[in-house]
Write a structure and sequence with these properties.
- By secondary structure, the chain is α/β, with parallel strands linked by helices.
- Helices cover about 40% and strands about 20% of the residues.
- It has 9 helices and 7 strands, in the order αααβαβαβαβαβααββ.
- The radius of gyration is 16 Å and the shape is globular.
- The mean pLDDT is about 90.
Length: about 220
């Protein structure tokens, strides 16, 4: 990993060294739209990758929903991956789920998983925590097979909610080094044009969250 990635890895380990033990309980009430995104993956028997898999909560859910797909997860935080491995073992899904540490901007699935590409890649509240989030999107698109899909859910700009909601939420998120990406819609549109992909962009919960699907042709 680059020096920037190593610094970010150390920061994430510091943030989540203790929080990972209560992460799933405390995030359930405000990381909205995750299950809706997972329900839309529909990979059949193709390979699925989560970028920024955290505690493994989404990996386990995806494996249960799609028993004929192999599920892969990567995260830059070794601390979070301790919880992810434990979640997979507890669920008895170690044959269906593979996990590795890596940097989302430079991630090479062939080198890490001996897998050249994926039918589906998804990111759940990940881009708002990755410094080079645009590079992460580019890498994900390059790791998709033809007709593959990139699914995203992340914080929006609360554009149809009272201003005080946005103010309080963004102040709270900043404590955890989370920065909702105001330019995400424009970045996705440019990415779709560059890769000749179709884009579906959906504001959720009055803009509290944004959902998107990029589909390669």
């Amino acid at each position: 990993m680059s020096d920037i990635a190593l610094d970010h890895s150390a920061l994430m380990d510091k943030v989540y060294r203790r929080q990972r033990h209560i992460y799933d309980l405390t995030r359930a009430w405000y990381l909205l739209g995750r299950d809706h995104m997972l329900a839309g993956l529909k990979p059949n028997d193709g390979a699925v990758l989560e970028v920024g898999c955290g505690t493994g909560r989404n990996l386990v859910s995806a494996a249960h929903a799609y028993p004929f797909a192999h599920i892969y997860g990567m995260d830059i935080s070794s601390e979070m991956l301790v919880s992810a491995h434990a979640a997979v073992r507890k669920a008895g899904l170690h044959q269906q789920i593979s996990i590795a540490q890596g940097d989302a901007v430079t991630f090479d699935p062939q080198h890490v998983f001996n897998k050249p590409d994926f039918a589906r890649i998804f990111m759940s509240y990940t881009l708002s925590m990755i410094p080079d989030w645009q590079g992460t999107l580019e890498r994900a698109m390059s790791n998709l097979r033809p007709e593959g899909e990139l699914h995203i859910v992340d914080f929006g700009q609360c554009e149809h909610l009272p201003g005080i909601v946005r103010f309080v939420l963004f102040k709270w998120l900043a404590l955890f080094h989370v920065s909702p990406r105001e330019n995400l819609p424009h970045a996705l549109a440019a990415l779709a044009k560059e890769h000749k992909a179709s884009l579906t962009f959906t504001p959720l919960y009055r803009g509290y969250a944004w959902g998107a699907v990029l589909r390669k042709n």
